[in-house]
Amino acid sequence: MTPPAISTHGLTHTYGRTFALRPLDLEVEAGEIFGLLGHNGAGKTTTVGLLTTLLRPTSGRSTVAGYDVVGQAPQVRSRIGYLPENVQFYNDLTLVENLRFFARLSGLREPDRRITEVLAFLDFEGHDRQRLGTFSKGMRQRVGIAQAILHRPEVLFLDEPTSGLDPEGVRTLRQIVVRINAELGTTVFMNTHLLSEATRTCTSIGILRDGELVRHGSLAAILGAYPTEQALEEAYFETAGSPA
Amino acid sequence: MTRAGVFARKELRDLGRHRIVWILGATLALAVVIAVVVASLAFRAQMADYQAYVADLASSGSAVTAAAPQLFPLQLLRGGLEYVEIIGALFAIVVGYGTIAREAARGTLPLIYTRSHGPRALVIGKLLGIAAFWAALVTVLVLVAGVTVALVGGSGLTVADAFRLAIAAAAAWVYLMFWSAVAVGLTATMRRPGTALILALGLWLAIVLIVPQIGDTMDPDNQVPGGLFKALAIAKPDELAVLAHFSHYEVTRNGLEVTSISKLFERISFGFLGIKDKYNQQSLGFVWADMYRYTWAMLALLTAGLGFAVSVTTRTRLLRKTA
């Protein structure tokens, strides 16, 4: 049996006395596109921060790609890709210069060849010499995806990837995520508060409420429990409650 | 290429592209040129006075001869070194502060820290980049100074002069690197980069200006313009005999001065360039006998500065700034 791509047991994180994440038990199977839903402040970004080694857990343990996030952080980092919510780059550098920097940081021996491959995969050619400061939000997100998959990660973490994008950008990004999962076999862990995105993209979902995972399962199972067109919306508001 | 090498290359490139860095570098180079020009003009005025004096002697039929003032080209660099000591340290603080503050302000740290590299690769790489930058800038300043001395002073540098200049340049590199390392460490330590900048400027004020000034003020020879002992026409052996009665005072004064890396840099560079009369036209061995302890002290301070920067610039601290 294949071990889960992501596994957490009693994972918590506190900021001072405030619980950002209550004991989280979660498993995401390899090859899934997992969507973590929740209101703003529900703990989605904290969860991604813990799984990408950016934050240290207050208690509990977790593994990503089979490696312990705290004890084997370097191994985890070499197997994950990460796109933060507001991804930032070196705006004074061109697209290729930015990607070359991150490729070298990932230890790629032939960065330029891999950059060409990735840009072709993302249908994002022709912008090589353009400085990133001139890019639109949608273009920057694509660069964000490019830097995240340069080193062929096993697990890709996307924090609100469609935030701030226009409908065209949302659709493009959704197609990219699905292709990365289907063609590269990458497990995707995606934070979102857009229910339509989760419905169209994810194979399984979890719903966080005040730092607590209140629902977790395959998308099909959740949709099956609510036989209406707004099934996920109903499930979401029933479990996550109304926004404060 | 190692990950630290990747960061070093990026840092060097960033510094090369930064407008403020160019402005500060040009200012420093200009200051060195101006200092050499002013010193050279002063020497020419001295030479003109001497020639007028000799002409007066000749026209009065006097057989008395007077020694011509001698030009020691390296002594023209005194003002330039003082600029490096004062403005250079400020510049080095700006460079060290900028390297961390800029990265935090850009928000690129989460992307950097979700990649697999050693825990100190970023800070070591950045310090290597800064080290290469200072090496390049100091080389440019030495070339500018050398050419200016040759053109304005009308005197080329010998191989021996160039070697002494290289020693002074190495001291300048150590000095500037120390200030950048301290600024990197402080910026990493403080939650707000602005607080670190203020602290670094406070340190600069104390170490570059206040401590050396206290030492100078305590120097008995500085109590009268031109020198107390000279004004009283006291010969060197007698001066030393007098000072021997104040050895504890002198040890305290000297001890205070050498706590300042600026004073160490000044003593080493003035010593090897022969700017201080005691070392002018002396062999390197003679100068080294007096300077070796200052050299070690300066290297120890640089090591401490680098150690401070490397030990405090951690993932946790830097990511907290982005948060």
Offer a quick outline of the entry:
The complex is a heterodimer of chains A (244) and B (323). Chain A has 244 residues and is of the alpha/beta class. Chain A has helices at 44-51, 73-77, 95-105, 111-121, 137-149, 167-184, 195-201, 219-225, 231-240, and strands spanning 6-15, 18-28, 33-37, 59-64, 67-68, 80-83, 155-159, 187-192, 204-209, 212-218.
Textual characterization of the structure:
The complex is a heterodimer of chains A (244) and B (323). Chain A has 244 residues and is an alpha/beta fold. Chain A contains 9 helices and 10 strands. In chain A, the strands form 2 sheets. Chain A has a 6-stranded mixed β-sheet, sandwiched between helices. In chain A, strands 2-1-4-5 form a 4-stranded antiparallel β-sheet. In chain A, β7, α6 (167-184) and β8 (187-192) form a beta-alpha-beta unit. The longest helix of chain A is centred in the C-terminal third of the chain and has 18 residues, at 167-184. Chain B has one domain. Chain B contains 13 helices and no strands. Chain B has helices spanning 3-17, 19-59, 78-106, 109-113, 121-152, 159-189, 193-218, 228-231, 236-244, 247-257, 261-272, 284-312, 315-322. In chain B, α2 (19-59) runs antiparallel to α3 (78-106), α3 runs antiparallel to α7 and α7 packs antiparallel against α10 (247-257). Chain A binds chain B through residues 52-54, 56, 74-75, 77-78, 80, 82, 84, 86-92, 101-102, 104-107, 147, 151, and chain B through 1, 3, 6, 10, 17, 106-108, 110-117, 316, 319.
Derived from helix and strand composition plus strand pairing, the structural class of chain B reads mainly alpha
Share of residues in strands of chain B = under 5%
Tell me the span between the first and last alpha carbons of chain B.
30 Å
Give the ordered list of helices and strands of chain A: EEEHEEHEHHHEHEHEEHH
Tell the overall outline of chain A. Answer: globular
Q: State the order of secondary-structure elements of chain B, H for helix, E for strand.
A: HHHHHHHHHHHHH
Please work out how many helical segments of chain B DSSP would assign.
13
In whole angstroms, how far apart are the ends of chain A?
42 Å
Oligomeric nature of the chains: heterodimer
CATH third-tier fold name of the domain at 6-79 and 153-240 in chain A: Rossmann fold
Number of strands of chain B: 0
Q: Count the strands of chain A?
A: 10
The low-confidence runs of chain A, each spanning 5 or more residues with pLDDT under 50, are: none
Helix content of chain B: over 70%
Taking all Cα atoms into account, the compactness measure Rg of chain B is 23 Å
Largest sheet of chain A: 6 strands, mixed
Low-pLDDT runs of 5+ residues of chain B are none
- Total helical elements of chain A: 9
What is the CATH superfamily classification of the domain at 6-79 and 153-240 in chain A? P-loop containing nucleotide triphosphate hydrolases
What's the shape of chain B? Answer: elongated
